[in-house]
Amino acid sequence: MTADHDGTRCVRAGLPEPEPGEPFLPGPVFAAPYHLDPWMGPAAAPNGYGRADNPTRRLLEAAIGELEGGDCRVFASGQAAITGLLLTVLRPGDTVVLPSDGYFPVRTFATDTLAGVGVRVLFAPTVGPYPDFDGVRLVLVETPANPGLDVVDVPALVGRARAAGALVAVDNTTATPLGQRPLDLGADLVVASGTKALTGHSDLLLGYVASRSAELLTAVAGWRTATGAVLGAFDAWLAHRSLGTLDLRLARQTANAQALARLLATRPDVTGLRWPGLPDDPAYPVASAQMRRMPGVLCFDLGDADRVGRFLDAARLVAAATSFGGLHTSADRRAQWGDDTAPGFLRLSCGVEDTADLVADVTAALDVAHR
Ligand SMILES: *Cc1c(COP(=O)(O)O)cnc(C)c1O
Q1: Pocket test for ligand 1, best of 193, 199, 299 (most atoms within 8 A of CB)
Q2: Is 130 in the active site?
Q3: Can you give the CATH number for the domain in which 279 is found?
Q4: In which region does residue 211 sit, left (phi positive, over 0), alpha (psi from -120 to 50) or beta (all else)?
Q5: Last residue of a domain, one of 243, 266, 300
Q6: Which amino acid residue places its CA nearest to atom 4 of ligand 1?
Q7: Do both 163 and 93 map to the same domain?
């Protein structure tokens, strides 16, 4: 049997075996407690109490696990998954290496909470240089990094970390498991927000941890049950329903990002353009070797907040909104959230609109903003 391609894998991922009279994807199971066997109690069935387990969630975990190539546990948000992983793995006295240019709330959590409980926190830029990994317990990288879109060579980093006995976790939010498979590249763990391109409809929050290590995943699941940051059944069902179109959505988003990158590269009013799929982007050599497809997100600088405001106001197809990976093209001036980016820095997330419409709209809006 030949291996299925991405679109086929997405529409089938995590679905139960066909049963006459049953739906393709069973509806959400809403339950806190379930009926128990009066004698055997929770030992008789997988469902006992909703914080520990839920059948809708299990199907979603099977689906994401299939796409990542490991086992998966979902959380109520990406932040819940990432902080859950950090607090599961790290103990006072441990050292963790985090990206200095990665997702801002993770950095804040590290300096506020992890450092406060005695974890030594080191920061390294995604492109390096990385510190000596001797004595490091966990290296978390984000590739491509949000929002700067730098990329790190995962197999090379894994080699160095493994030699020092450190675990490697890759934040796969921007790439999604169709864009890159960190477990195949040697990482011990994947963490991600499924809020973004993975589910792609701007209507739910989701996070997950994936791994091939049963020991690590059991610890992560234990943490989740103990702290309770679980995903509700309806959101789990919505997320699973959205996965079926992931291949289609990403294909259009990548095509739109490529067209916009080509346009923006020609504009004198745009500086600092980054998209790992552009052959002259600094991330291109590593990204094109380790990624299976390029993200639908790009970033650039319009000089100041005022010009960003004029651009967003003039654009019909670019919504001013944070987050990324949704059906609708959106752009976010990160500095307005207290991020450490420049005032005119914009992260633009391509939706699934027709490429020609988007290029025309962005061109017209840049012309207005430039005046
Ligand atoms: C959005 C994001 C997160 C956090 O995910 P939420 O679902 O918003 O909690 C973590 N990492 C990266 C790279 C993100 O973009």
Answers
A1: 193
A2: no
A3: 3.90.1150.10
A4: beta
A5: 243
A6: 78
A7: yes
Q: How far is the CA of 222 from the centre of ligand 1 (A)?
A: 22
Cα dist from 177 to 37, 124, 159, 253, whole Å: 39, 24, 21, 15
Per residue of the chain (371 residues), give pLDDT as tens.
678 999 999 999 999 999 999 999 999 999 999 999 999 999 999 999 999 999 999 999 999 999 999 999 999 999 999 999 999 999 999 999 999 999 999 999 999 999 999 999 999 999 999 999 999 999 999 999 999 999 999 999 999 999 999 999 999 999 999 999 999 999 999 999 999 999 999 999 999 999 999 999 999 999 999 999 999 999 999 999 999 999 999 999 999 999 999 999 999 999 999 999 999 999 999 999 999 999 999 999 999 999 999 999 999 999 999 999 999 999 999 999 988 899 999 999 999 999 999 999 999 999 999 87
Q: Examine the domain organization and report whether 21 and 156 are in the same domain.
A: yes
Number of domains comprising the chain: 2
Query: What separation in Å is there between the alpha carbon of 275 and the centre of ligand 1?
Result: 19
Residue with CA at minimum distance from ligand 1 atom 2? 193
Question: Is the omega angle on the peptide bond into residue 144 within 30 degrees of 0, that is, cis?
Answer: yes
- Whether 83 and 131 map to the same domain: the answer is yes
Pocket of ligand 1 (CB under 6 A): 77-79, 82, 103, 142, 146, 171, 173-174, 193, 195-196, 205, 207
- Of the candidates 243, 259, 289, which is a domain's last residue? 243
Here the CATH number for the domain that contains residue 145 is 3.40.640.10
Concerning whether 171 is annotated as a catalytic residue, the answer is: yes
Q: Is residue 260 part of a domain?
A: yes
Active site residue 235: no
Give the H or E element holding residue 332. strand 330-333
- pTM here is 0.97
In a domain, 1, yes or no: no
Cβ neighbors of 129 (< 8 A, separation 6 or more) are none
Domain match, 172 and 299 both: no
Whole-number Å distance, alpha carbon 18 to ligand 1 midpoint, is 34
Contact 108, 114 (CB under 8 A): no
